[in-house]
């Protein structure tokens, strides 16, 4: 189990999708768990597709936290090394209330 900062309440599960930049946006599918270093406004369309968000950096006022709350999807931020610990496609559960990320 990984731990981070709770940023948007709720729980959701889906396959982890490691996204390193805009060149990977086309790989994201409905119901994926977005796993990335951070987000910025160019990432906003992904929030309408994914089930949850996990970032390596960010806090309550970061782009990822604000947009996740607006879209009502769970988010956990500040998860150290999430893009290297989580495996692309692995079943992942994000608890945005507790700040935890479980993975197979």
Would you write up a description of this structure?
With 104 residues, the protein is mostly beta strands. The chain has one domain: Phosphohistidine domain (Glucose Oxidase, domain 1, 3-Layer(bba) Sandwich), CATH 3.50.30.10. The chain has 2 helices and 8 strands; from the N terminus they run E-E-E-E-E-H-E-H-E-E. The chain has helices at 63-71, 82-85, and strands spanning 2-3, 5-8, 11-18, 33-36, 52-55, 75-77, 91-95, 100-103. Strands 1-8-7-3-4-5-6-2 form an 8-stranded mixed sheet, covered by helices on one side. Strand 5 (52-55), helix 1 and strand 6 (75-77) form a beta-alpha-beta unit.
Proportion in β-strands:
25-35%
Shape descriptor: globular
CATH domain class: Alpha Beta
**From the alpha-carbon coordinates, what is the Rg to the nearest angstrom?**
11 Å
Mean pLDDT: 97
Pfam families: PEP-utilizers
Protein name: Phosphoenolpyruvate synthase/pyruvate phosphate dikinase
InterPro entries: PEP-util_enz_mobile_dom, PEP_Utilizing_Enz, Phosphohistidine_dom_sf
Organism: Kribbella italica
């Amino acid at each position: 189990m990984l731990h981070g900062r709770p940023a948007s309440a709720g729980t959701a599960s889906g396959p982890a999708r490691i996204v390193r930049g805009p060149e990977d946006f086309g790989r994201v599918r409905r119901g994926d768990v977005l796993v990335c270093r951070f987000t910025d406004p160019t990432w906003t369309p992904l929030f309408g597709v994914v089930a949850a968000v996990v970032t390596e950096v960010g806090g309550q006022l970061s782009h990822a936290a604000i947009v996740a709350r607006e879209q009502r999807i769970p988010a956990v931020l500040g998860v150290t090394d999430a893009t290297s610990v989580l495996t692309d496609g692995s079943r992942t559960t994000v608890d945005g209330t507790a700040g935890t990320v479980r993975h197979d």
